[in-house]
């Protein structure tokens, strides 16, 4: 196997274990055993579980990136597009619930650099998607705003604040799948009002 | 002095010290000394600093309650009313910054019962104010919504989420007065869009 292929195989094996047993309960040894890989060889690619975890997160979030973007872009009506965006995000969380749950280990202040970097990439990707949706409404003369990016930032700040506060208040537990559907319902109501107002 | 008057005097003395030196740096002994009160006498009214702190919070938030409500109610245009509501809230935080800073000691999960009770009172008061504003818009046929209370809850969830996330992300420090003005600016933009939409 080439180095790249070996690296991909490790990520795939880790993904399976993380998804099935959770991240906390999975050891590097188990992942190495799954691939009949020596410890030295495994650690050559990923010096610790955290760096492997970050690689898995990157892998799963990039896997459907283009497809997701195409689906969102295909929606001509901004409100439909933003609801689709929210649906896709929640589908992702529910699909990889066991993997994402591990993020609860960290707060924004204790987040290690490997994950911080990833999160700032996610942040800019989400923000571009929302900006594109709002810009579409502006181009269609449905939205009368001066700066699509700034409006998207405001939308995202309040959306993220709501999610973050919901997740933090739920204590040491990551919300379960059903709770994420409750969050989604509120997010959609919020998006509808944000786009259309109360009148 | 009657028991009630003595209690009020203790609250006033604590308020002065808390506002001037901060809560963490103020001791019960100092407050007792200010009033030439014996330790036993002081502890008869307030068994610990936390119960005195809760009493001070209650006192300052009730002091202008009726006046604030009258000002908000006098605004006929819902958007003006909600901006005034947000102004009043920020004025309060800035005025009592030294006292409120101490709340940063707790998270929603470690909040002691004395403060939890107070916060659920604040929560219902804020929610009534927002509901009244939205209901006014509904009565004026400016807002076309079915349930003012539910709409107010949604507004408040996202508003509080934004504030909470801002305060938490700022680490172990309570945001300074200038930062609260930045928060206020975003809150007003948010309220404008929530009420009027993007069109």
From TrEMBL, chains A, B:
Residues 4-64 form the HTH tetR-type domain. It holds the Pfam family TetR_N. The keyword DNA-binding applies. InterPro entries: DNA-bd_HTH_TetR-type_CS (IPR023772), Homeodomain-like_sf (IPR009057), HTH-type_Tx_Regulator (IPR050624), HTH_TetR (IPR001647), Tet_transcr_reg_TetR-rel_C_sf (IPR036271). The keyword DNA-binding applies. PROSITE patterns: HTH_TETR_1, HTH_TETR_2. This is HTH tetR-type domain-containing protein. It comes from the Bacteria. GO terms for molecular function: DNA binding. Keywords: DNA-binding. Residues 27-46 bind DNA. SUPFAM superfamilies: Homeodomain-like, Tetracyclin repressor-like, C-terminal domain. Gene3D superfamilies: Homeodomain-like (1.10.10.60), Tetracycline Repressor, domain 2 (1.10.357.10). Coiled coil: none annotated.
């Amino acid at each position: 196997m080439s180095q790249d292929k070996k690296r991909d195989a490790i990520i795939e094996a880790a993904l399976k274990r993380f998804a099935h047993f959770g991240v906390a309960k999975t050891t590097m040894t188990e992942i190495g055993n799954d691939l009949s890989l020596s410890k030295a060889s495994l650690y050559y690619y990923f010096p610790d579980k955290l760096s492997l975890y970050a690689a898995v997160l990157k892998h799963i979030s990039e896997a459907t990136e283009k497809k997701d973007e195409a689906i969102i872009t295909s929606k001509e009506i901004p409100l439909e597009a933003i609801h689709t965006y929210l649906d896709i995000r929640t589908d992702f969380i529910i699909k990889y619930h066991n993997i994402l749950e591990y993020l609860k280990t960290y707060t924004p202040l204790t987040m290690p650099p490997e994950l911080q970097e990833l999160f700032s990439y996610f942040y800019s990707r989400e923000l571009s998607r929302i900006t594109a949706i709002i810009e579409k409404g502006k181009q269609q003369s449905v939205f009368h705003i001066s700066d699509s990016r700034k409006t998207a930032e405001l939308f995202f700040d309040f959306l993220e604040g709501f999610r973050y506060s919901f997740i933090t208040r739920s204590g040491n537990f990551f919300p379960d799948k059903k709770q994420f559907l409750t969050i989604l319902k509120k997010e959609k109501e919020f998006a509808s009002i944000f786009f259309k107002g109360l009148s």
